[in-house]
Write a structure and sequence with these properties.
The complex is a heterodimer. Chain A is mostly beta strands. Helices cover 5% and strands 54% of the residues of chain A. Chain A has 6 helices and 36 strands. The longest helix of chain A is centred in the first third of the chain and has 11 residues. Chain B is elongated. The N and C termini of chain B lie far apart (67 Å). Chain B has 14 helices and no strands. The longest helix of chain B has 20 residues. Chain B is mainly α. Helix content of chain B is 27%, strand content 0%. Classes of the chains: A mainly beta, B mainly alpha. At the A-B interface, helix 1, helix 2, helix 3, helix 4 and strand 10 of A face helix 8, helix 9, helix 12, helix 13 and helix 14 of B.
Chain lengths: 801, 343
């Protein structure tokens, strides 16, 4: 009987990955061996070397996002799978596996050892991430840690903030649209057009990893092992840079990346007839060679201190963890197992210096950050009778943050002026979880399982104030499952789980908070009735179902349907998140030579939230009485004045829902036996179509720019967005022709097409103002990704022993 | 193996047994040469190189290294199977081996797994008993293929195919516009999951979700001076690991994802962000006075667009990275002024 598992490779983007692996699977029928040769062929490993070339006809960072096939041109195919050693009678074996050796996504692994005594492994791996080839910036220094304004850009002293005259409005450097508008205009403009000075920069990262490991069996059942993994990550990633807080300018810039991560593991394990045990150490050291990186301010003079925004990349950190685990079999039917870990996480990177001229007070040289993570799981399982198995498990997780609390006085966004006082709030999290389940066999291929889970999460902070508005949540889950096997050709299962999470008292927000005296920050008005989703009460339903039908040796079908729903009863916040997923798989072996596979998945997801737009300002003065309810009347827009009913005004209510409707289809075909068994043909097609509708209803008030008018604040209804869509097609065709018993030629063609539309890119990059579509945000010009790429490849494959 | 062939083989075996009995030549079977494993002759006399199911390929695997004293024989896994080897008189059909791992009449998963665990107890399988896959009735052979030289699930390039046989939603998610490089063969299921049972949720390799993510994303581990509580709490509060329509692997689109926690504040976290706020939308057009707030409404026109300079700028929260356009250190900050994650 053929298994449904040998399904659909669906890796059309990975031409070279398929190389050696696919080729190895192919033994030309024309050269099928018999007798002793056949036995040798079956029992002794075959080595394969594949060399060749690929041609990609177009540049596309998205197409080559992880494969390295991002540029038009030729690439080398190189795949190897080599075996050696003592032969059938010896224990020493070695093997080398190389994949994509000609690409930036190459991987080379090897191992050698005398089985049953020792083993050494080593590996090298590269992962590229090509992020964008449409990114633009007008700063110089992309790729470095110093971003400077281009030559010809107006001197800081000429970049004055707004005053009330027409030319100054256009020269308001915190309205970054203005330099575009002012070019050549008399009256003080800089005559510098930002969009015209943008230049492209390819953003992406490359990880290079190497690892070495060794293991040895010291005595029957006893094994020791150790490994080291070193990774270097270089390149750039897009990072948002705010310059001068909310009245300043922001941009997306290529943050430099140059970091290393070293991971160490060592351990010992024992496995005997009744007991097994392991203990080990895991260490991870992260070191970032990029510390401070700076961006010259393009906005108004002195919007940031010294006109330089100073940013700090991720700090160096360490984690050291001890692990234990094991088990004991009281009887063949009853066993106890456990696992535990204790980890110490530290981070002590020196803070960057306070900027010259600032009023900052930084009380420590570093955070002295330390977290202790403890975790433990104990489980008892027992088959108490032939039909009944019981499991009980207890789990404990504790994140104990021992970072000292200190008070810092700083300014956000490197702004000048008086600093504001904040203290850090180290957060702790403690989980207690109990699981009980019973599995009962009803006979004749039927079984039922019932599970209960209790989970308590306690969140806290060692600081005086806690960022959590509910400190403890209790989650009770009940799950039942029914499995049935109707002879060997039809099996199915269905399960349903319901859980209820309730939290300790949720601290309501205050819509009219009283601000503490400076230097403490002004209090943020918060909406009463709003609950943060991960702390809020929640009811959860999950349904899982699956049916497998093996109609014959040639035909198998599998269908599944999953449903999930989270409901949050709070008045405001996330209200509901639900999804259902339908899957259908089929495999048909039409003949010994011809086979087909097919899958289809449809996912329908939706989340929805409710809220109400409150404001910050005076609530006692209401020059024109506000009338709530439709039609939503305009009201006077005197500076910082809000209607008295602003926290309950139904005209300020809004709802948002977003969905995902995604079809994914895969078809595969394989034909062997053409040309007297010399030729094999493979074809794979994957098609995915995603549509993301986002609906926003309700609305709120906006200034019409005439604040002295009785209708200075006008109601504007929310509008829904055009759907975000992406349509991905990947076609791969391959033919393998056996020249002789040892060699073959493979010809591959691949077509990749992505068509996407996303207003988050296109509404800004392609608007009339382009990269300056937002007044204080210099856009990166990135458009939603699209590509249409053809790839052809030819390779020669040699098999030997 | 096709049925006619099987019948012929059965008849031939029966005839052979009779012949050997009559000729008192039972030693002949013992004299057969083992092909791969010690003592495999009694099996490979039928399951030879011409068998459709390539059992002999076990010779290419770790289970075929005879020099390792732990290497099993056929019967170590399948049982002595005397009735299968010597079909009882009168039986119309040859009985199955004592432990059968595939096909019709295969043994119960517990019986199959018991054979494997005889040698493979402990290690990564320490927590197999009571784990999700075990209690759902999976057998080792649901994922592993013992008799093939290249077990799909043990090869990075092919492992996801084995997992996707059951995990259909994850297969579809890995084709989305934002995804981990699973189909590209650079990240595989076992990088994050231990299918044999683990201390963590969702069979994750580490005790918590965050610890699992940090094995590749150590820079986000901190601990930071300024913590983002939802990030310290659980990476999955914001991310979905297999694939998403929202970059970068976000489970919902920002700014509303952020507003699920910060949708209640002023001045800007609780704003309503809708298509009316996009460039050229009704919000911008509502303020067409072309001037700054205050008494002077100047009617200044942008010479590029011809539109009046507006105070109602399209919000950066709808563009590109949304809230993270400014609050970029969203996983935590070690900058003294990073309490709002702007640094």
């Amino acid at each position: 009987m053929r298994s449904l598992k040998n399904r659909f490779p669906m890796r059309a983007t990975v031409l070279a990955v398929r190389g050696a692996v696919a080729a190895l699977a192919f033994v030309p029928a024309a050269y099928a061996a018999e007798g002793e040769d056949a036995i040798r062929e079956l029992t002794q490993p075959t080595s394969v070397v594949e060399v060749g070339g690929l041609y990609v006809n177009r540049d596309s960072a998205k197409f080559g996002e992880y494969t390295g096939l991002d540029k038009k041109g030729g690439y080398a195919i190189g795949n190897v799978e080599l075996y050696g050693g003592d032969g059938p009678e010896g224990a020493f074996r070695w093997k080398v596996l190389g994949i994509n050796l000609g690409l930036d996504s190459r991987s080379l692994t090897g191992e050698a050892g005398a089985q049953g005594r020792w083993r050494v492994t080593a590996g090298y791996d590269e992962i590229v991430r090509n992020f964008s080839d449409t990114y633009q910036t007008f700063w110089n220094g992309a790729g470095s840690s110093t971003f400077t304004l281009p030559s010809g850009y107006p001197a800081a002293s000429t970049r004055l903030a707004v005053t009330n005259n027409a030319n100054a409005i256009l020269a308001n450097w915190n309205n970054i649209q203005s330099p575009n508008a002012i070019a050549g205009t008399a009256g003080g403009g800089p005559a510098f057009v930002i969009p015209a000075n943008m230049h492209s920069f390819d953003i992406g990262t490359e990880r290079k990893r190497g690892n070495v490991g060794v293991s040895a069996i010291l005595a029957p059942g006893w094994e020791v092992r150790a490994s080291v993994k070193h990774e270097e990550k270089d390149g750039t990633k897009i990072t948002g840079v705010n310059i001068g807080r909310f009245s300043g300018v922001s941009a997306l810039l290529p943050e430099p990346i140059n970091s290393t991560t070293d991971q160490f593991e060592a351990g010992v394990s024992y496995a005997g007839r009744q007991a097994f045990f392991n203990a080990g150490y895991y260490g991870s050291l992260y070191r970032n060679d990029v510390g401070l990186w700076t961006v010259e301010n393009p906005g108004a003079n002195n919007a940031v201190l010294g006109n330089i925004a100073r940013l700090q990349s991720y700090p160096d950190n360490q984690m050291h963890q001890l692990n234990v685990g094991g088990g004991y079999k009281f009887s063949p039917a009853t066993r106890f197992s456990f696992s535990g870990s204790w980890a110490r996480l530290t981070q002590n990177e020196n803070f960057i210096d306070s900027p010259a001229g600032s009023t900052w007070v930084v009380p420590e040289s570093s955070a002295h950050a330390k977290v202790i993570n403890s975790s433990f799981l104990a489980r008892l399982t027992s088959r108490v009778m032939k039909e009944l198995t019981l499991n009980a498990a207890y789990k404990y997780d504790d994140r104990d943050n021992r970072t000292p609390v200190a008070i810092f006085r700083t300014t956000a966004g490197d702004t000048p002026g008086a600093s504001t006082e904040f203290s850090n709030e180290p957060v702790n999290r403690k989980v207690n979880q109990l699981n009980l389940d019973a599995d009962y066999s009803l006979g004749r291929g039927q079984a039922v399982k019932a599970e209960y889970e209790y989970q308590k999460i306690h969140r806290s902070s060692t600081a005086e104030g806690s960022p959590f508005r509910a400190d403890t949540s209790y989650d009770n889950t009940l799950r039942v499952q029914y499995r049935r096997t109707l002879d060997d050709s039809l099996t199915g299962r269905v399960s349903y789980a319901h859980s209820r999470r309730h939290t300790s008292e949720y601290e309501e927000g205050d819509t009219r908070p009283t601000s503490p005296p400076s230097p403490l920050p002004a209090a943020d008005p918060l909406l009463t009735g709003f609950e943060q989703f991960f702390l809020a009460d929640r009811n959860r339903d999950k349904l899982r179902s699956q049916l497998n039908f093996q109609a014959s040796d040639a035909l198998s079908v599998q269908a599944s349907l999953d449903y999930n729903r989270d409901h949050y009863p709070a008045q405001y916040g996330l209200k509901e998140s639900k999804s259902w997923v339908f899957g259908l798989d089929g495999a048909l072996v039409a003949s010994k030579a011809l086979s087909f596979t097919l899958f289809y998945t449809y996912e329908d997801m939706k989340t929805s939230m409710d809220s109400l737009a409150i404001g910050r300002g005076l609530t006692s003065t209401n020059l024109v009485p506000h009338v709530a309810g439709p039609p939503c009347a305009a009201y006077t827009n005197v500076a910082n004045t809000l209607p008295a009913d602003y926290a309950t005004d139904s005209c300020r209510q809004w709802t948002e829902s977003q969905g995902d409707k995604i079809h994914t289809l895969g078809i595969g075909a394989r034909y062997r036996g053409l040309m007297a068994g010399r030729l094999e043909l493979l074809g794979e097609l994957t098609y995915s179509r995603a549509r993301t509708p986002i609906t926003v209803m309700g609305g709120t008030y906006y200034s019409n720019g005439v604040p002295s008018s009785p209708t200075g604040n006008v109601f504007i209804a929310a509008e829904s967005f055009s759907d975000i869509t992406s349509e991905l097609t990947q076609l791969r065709l391959a033919g393998v022709y056996a020249i002789d018993k040892k060699s073959s030629v493979r010809i591959t063609y691949m077509y990749g097409r992505l068509k996407s539309s996303d207003w988050a890119y296109d509404a800004y990059a392609q608007s009339a103002l382009g990269v300056l579509a937002v007044q204080n945000f210099i856009g990166p010009g990135i458009t939603s990704p699209n590509y249409n790429v053809n790839v052809v490849g030819v390779s020669y494959n040699y098999r030997f022993r | 193996m096709g049925r006619p062939r099987r019948i012929l083989q059965a008849l031939a075996a029966a005839a052979g047994i009779c012949f050997f009995l009559n000729a008192q030549s039972s030693l002949a079977a013992d004299a057969r040469k083992d092909l791969v494993l010690n003592g495999d002759a009694k099996c490979t006399r039928c399951h030879d190189e011409s068998d459709d199911f390539p059992v002999l390929a076990i010779g290419q695997t770790r289970h075929g290294v005879k020099a390792d004293g732990r290497t099993p024989s056929c019967t170590s896994c399948h049982g002595e199977s005397d009735h299968h080897v010597n079909k009882p008189a009168g039986a119309t059909e040859r009985p199955k081996p004592d432990v059968l791992f595939r096909g019709k009449g295969k043994s119960h998963a517990d019986a199959q797994n018991g054979q494997c665990l005889t040698c493979h107890e402990g290690g990564n399988r320490t927590l197999w008993a009571g784990s999700r896959h075990q209690t759902d009735g999976l057998a080792c052979t649901s994922c592993h293929a013992v008799h093939t030289p290249r077990d799909k699930v043990l090869t990075k390039a092919t492992q996801p195919e084995a997992c996707f046989a059951c995990h259909k939603a994850e297969r579809a998610q890995s084709s989305r516009i934002s995804h981990h490089p699973i189909l590209e063969g650079k990240v595989v299921c076992s990088d994050c999951h231990n299918p044999h049972g683990s201390q963590g949720p969702k069979l994750l390799v580490k005790a918590t979700t965050n610890e699992t993510c940090w094995t590749c994303h150590a820079e986000k581990r901190g601990p930071f001076l300024w913590e983002h509580p939802s990030a310290s709490d659980d990476c999955m509060n914001c991310h979905t690991p297999h694939g998403s329509t929202n970059q970068p692997l976000l489970r919902a689109r920002a700014p509303w994802l952020c507003q699920e926690c910060h949708g209640d504040g002023a001045p800007h976290p609780g704003n309503v962000y809708s298509a009316a706020s996009l460039p050229g939308g009704r919000v911008a057009n509502a303020n067409n006075t072309g001037g700054v707030s205050g008494p002077n409404q100047l009617g200044v026109v942008n010479p590029v667009t011809g539109a009046r300079v507006t105070q109602n700028a399209p919000p950066a929260q709808l563009a590109y990275r949304s809230c993270v356009n400014c609050h970029s250190q969203i996983h935590g900050s070690n900058h003294p002024a990073g309490n709002r994650f702007l640094r």
